[in-house]
Amino acid sequence: MSRLVYAEDYETGSVHDLGSHKVTAEEITAFGRTYDPQPYHLDENAGKESAFGGLIASGWNTAAIWMRLYVTTLLPDAAAEGTVEGSPGVDEVRFLHPVRPGDVLHGTAEILGSLPSLSAPEFRIVRNRGHLVNAGGTQVLTLVLNARFRSRPKDS
Amino acid sequence: MSRLVYAEDYETGSVHDLGSHKVTAEEITAFGRTYDPQPYHLDENAGKESAFGGLIASGWNTAAIWMRLYVTTLLPDAAAEGTVEGSPGVDEVRFLHPVRPGDVLHGTAEILGSLPSLSAPEFRIVRNRGHLVNAGGTQVLTLVLNARFRSRPKDS
């Protein structure tokens, strides 16, 4: 993959491989205790008594796992830049299937397109459709991340 | 506040106080290392060199803080129930202002309305607009959480 540095390098329709992450019971319960203390995110036995039939990851934990894969794979070379005026955020986060201990989640980012930033003409908002799929091929998460990248300078 | 047990108890337009949470540098960097390792989520000095001028929380960390306040305040009495067929998820997550160490964030949940579940007639999807505001009165986060609650049984 060539280096993705400016907004224009993210070609609409391209799909970027973000690699994989193996989920553990320890990760699920640590996140659950801190951010989403519902019984089925805390304890295997409580999970067994729920509709899920066991311990499952918080949806926020699953979304954050996608973010880690995205940041570590795509962002090191990129001109993603935050602003104190706020970030364009995330849309349509969907938790499609339970994530359980031992699941290996594979991530991708599909470039939906980009829009000029309304607040700063030297930036564009790149819309990424994120996916996480488990080893059985079942989609567990989709989301749309709006990321702010610098446009390629006219003299480069 | 009376006990909120069934979908019908969440009155459209009502606003529920979720209490407050004080953010620490340790929380910001722990979340950043694990889920969003961009320099300004990891280290005060790296933050100083960024547009943010210091360490700031990952937007996912801020959203998860809202979730913790929501779960611990509103859900203990509620009939929120997950399903292995997936969760209706989250929309319109907006990171409006940087969250820094020492910020005290106050949460609310505003009930936007509810819709019948398409997959299970005994459930409704309650749409909540979540807000987090810092001690200076600045909104730092908004989101829309779609939560699945059991409808009040006809005989109760």
Automatic annotation (TrEMBL), chains A, B:
* Residue intervals of the MaoC-like domain: 21-113
Do you know which InterPro entries this protein is assigned to? HotDog_dom_sf (IPR029069), MaoC-like_dom (IPR002539)
Origin: domain of life: Bacteria
Q: Which Pfam families does this UniProt record tie to the protein?
A: MaoC_dehydratas
Write out the similarity annotation: Belongs to the enoyl-CoA hydratase/isomerase family.
- Name by which UniProt lists this protein: MaoC family dehydratase
User: From which source organism is this entry?
Assistant: Actinomadura meridiana
Q: What is the lineage of its organism?
A: Bacteria, Bacillati, Actinomycetota, Actinomycetes, Streptosporangiales
